[in-house]
Amino acid sequence: MGIIAFYEGNNATENIVQTVEDSPGQSWRPTQDDAIRSAKLFDVRPGAEIRVYDSPDGTMNDDFCIVNVKRPSPEYIVGTFERSYEDEYVRVTFIRNNGLDGKVSRIQIN
Fold it and tell me: Which of 12, 19, 61, 83 is deepest in the core (most CB within 10 A)?
């Protein structure tokens, strides 16, 4: 079972806001609204999809970001949710409205 730690600062800095397992079917509001700016993935399973939303309902009419895990890594940092990119470990897709870092209000894991 992989672990996802969500951080207050970019590049997995400052305080950990919340830590969860990578089990599919999760949808929740973070313990601190509008605090998360980055994440660190610890051996998260390939095929995992982590979605972070500005909207508390998880609607796609505001900023959101989808992190698709391609292969596990002992420790991988998603330094911001405001940039689309792809490497050997993840594919990150960011849809901009007015900014997402520090505004995350819903998280889903599948």
Answer: 12
What residue ranges do the domains of the chain occupy?
Answer: 3-109
- Structure token digits, residue 2: 């992989």
Q: For residues 44 and 104, what is the distance between their CA atoms, to the nearest angstrom?
A: 20
- CATH 2.60.20 is held by the domain 3-109: yes
pLDDT tens per residue, range 45-71: 999 999 999 999 999 999 999 999 999
Q: 76: which 2 tokens?
A: 């991988």
Sign of torsion over alpha carbons 63, 18, 56, 34: negative
